Amino acid sequence: MAVGLTTLVSFVGNVLSISIIYISSYAFHISKIYIDPQILLIFGIGSAVGALLGAKLTPKINRKVLTIVLAAMAIIAGIYLLTQLF
């Protein structure tokens, strides 16, 4: 979502971007789609950790190394999720 918000801000400005994100989030919130809270928690924590690590390590590590580290984190999260589902 952060990349989408950044892109929106660069084209239409802060107020309109936040309004668009709020409306889409609210529409998703009131929809009747079932979301498994455990899966949401796993992906949410993984996404937050990946974003924080990426932001912290970007100036210190080569871009290719950072890509490999974050890809490994995504693969590990995917494997964990698959083992929990089956």
UniProtKB/TrEMBL annotation:
Which superkingdom, per the lineage? Bacteria
Localization in the cell: Cell membrane; Membrane
Which topology term describes how it sits in the membrane? Multi-pass membrane protein
GO terms for cellular component: plasma membrane
Name the UniProt key words of this record, in alphabetical order: Cell membrane, Membrane, Transmembrane, Transmembrane helix
Query: Does this entry carry the keyword Membrane?
Result: yes
Q: Could you confirm whether the keyword Cell wall biogenesis/degradation appears in this record?
A: no
- List all membrane-crossing ranges: 33-53, 65-83
Q: Which family does it belong to?
A: Belongs to the 4-toluene sulfonate uptake permease (TSUP) (TC 2.A.102) family.
**Name the record gives this protein:** Probable membrane transporter protein
Task: Specify the taxonomic lineage.
Answer: Bacteria, Bacillati, Bacillota, Clostridia, Eubacteriales
